[in-house]
């Protein structure tokens, strides 16, 4: 692997977890032991995916070459130079390219909560952080630069080229700010997962163990039921439902559809609103009033229906420290329920643990 200089000060704030002294041992592990990781970090939706890729090899295959040609380039090195220009890293000369050296980079991908604006279009926000190594006033690697993208990389070359340089101290918008916040958690999680010691000068984003696995028990389902019902369930019924759901949880994968039917039946047994995908504001006001046990109204623009109403509903519910959520029916309908705002994060964690698919809206 060969490295080229950049024109910035060294990226190694001793207090920040986004620093070379943290990134370098992660890179060393990926390079020497295992180039791909996928695991759960507490507080992050779904699994975190970490890959060590390299130019030219990671793009030098039939599909990759087709993407490169489509983007208007002739080979992976030209794509790399385009990325280096964005990061103000010295580009490769023709003579250097002819040497056929390899240039590594780390791609870290995870999902964060969407912003209010993003919630209009999707339920989670993808975050891609691309780490490229370089050197600062030195012939040896001692620095890195990052590109960021909030899009899916369906065309990997295009995804790389559309990524933008990110300044972790000055996010451009709320989505980027959330991504940086969660990226710090992810880095801590990676270090814990790989048993990498974090420098004592670093201010950790979390005091918790972020990769501690949580055993799923009958009590896990009891906690889930209490939260999604806002504890509006009798003790006898709580234990009965938890026992049934836990029993289904332990069934083999081929019984998936039976398990989903039981999940659906459970939500219908508590205070929930089974709605077609298309509903109007009056429906929402009527059924949410029933769910919370008091009159509920909200302001909304004229000719606004269905999922476009979510931001206005949530804004009104937030005043009561509540949030509208839904069991994911994997169909063209919703199964809405109301949760206490402070319980939403834990509900989403328990959703992943219990395999009962719950969505933020």
TrEMBL record:
Ranges for domain DUF7821: 22-197
Superkingdom of the source species: Bacteria
Domain DUF6630 span(s) in chain numbering: 221-359
Residues of the signal peptide: none
InterPro entries linked to this entry: DUF6630, DUF7821
Pfam families linked: DUF6630, DUF7821
Protein name as it appears in the record: DUF1963 domain-containing protein
Organism name: Flavobacterium ginsenosidimutans
